[in-house]
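[Meeting: bench + compute handoff]

Bench side (C.D.) handed over the final construct sequence. Compute side (W.E.) agreed to return the predicted structure before the next meeting so the bench team could plan truncations. Sequence as handed over:
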Amino acid sequence: MKKILFVTDAVSFNGPSLEFACYLCNLTHSKLTGVFLENQVLELRSAEDIREIAVGKPVPGIELEDQKNLFRDKNIDRFKNICESNGVNCLVHLDAGMPVTEVVKESRYADLIVLDAATSFSWRPESIPTTFVKEVLEKSECPVVIAPEDFDGVDEIIFTYNGSCSSVFAMKQFTNLFPQLGTCKATVLSVTETGKPIKGDEARLREWLDTHYNNTEIQVVEDESVSTRLLEFMFSKEKVFIVMGAYGRSVLSTAFVPNPATLVVKLVTQPVFITHY
């Protein structure tokens, strides 16, 4: 992996998410491209809204566009300074237009996107993950990592598995992008309905897992409520990297209904890697 995108609202970005993106760049020896999105098509936020979400001291009495440009320039400087302090080679893209459309175009020529789950271009308060983030997860043409608010390293990788092509594809994508994490413990978690065995070919799954990781485990948990049991398992863990497949796609499963990725992104404080087949 060589090209990671840090996607952010040009007027407001999350410092801890950027620090996490820098960690991934240093881990994989990648360059970080800051994609600063300017919503110039359907900007419904007022100057007051912009001032409330922006990082830095607002300047009263100036026009909305001038206010946005001021915050954008300060955020770009901050982005460059944080990258430099972390020893990360960086580049800046200014993308003006429909934010989701711009991100999808960027994703076609990138290896990975790092995104804060609270990123929003709405004038209304939104729950996490926001509408913008959900659309990016569904439409991105490269894997997406939802950055944690607090990060203290990775000791274990949790692959969520339901026997589908997408869950295996996500495992392979993650492993190919992060070979440096091969020394971490790798746990495959399969939550099945009571009395039903793990789906797919468990023997070949074990063989693949042992080929790429030194310390491996397959855990099969039976529970009628798949999403609830999945969250309980995640809440019991620290210093993990969660891997999930097929966000927003019906192929994620007949077992995972509703899509548990939304709940994981909303409630779990660990980094989450999501891609689709």
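W.E. noted at the follow-up: The longest strand covers residues 31-39. C.D. will use this when planning the next construct.
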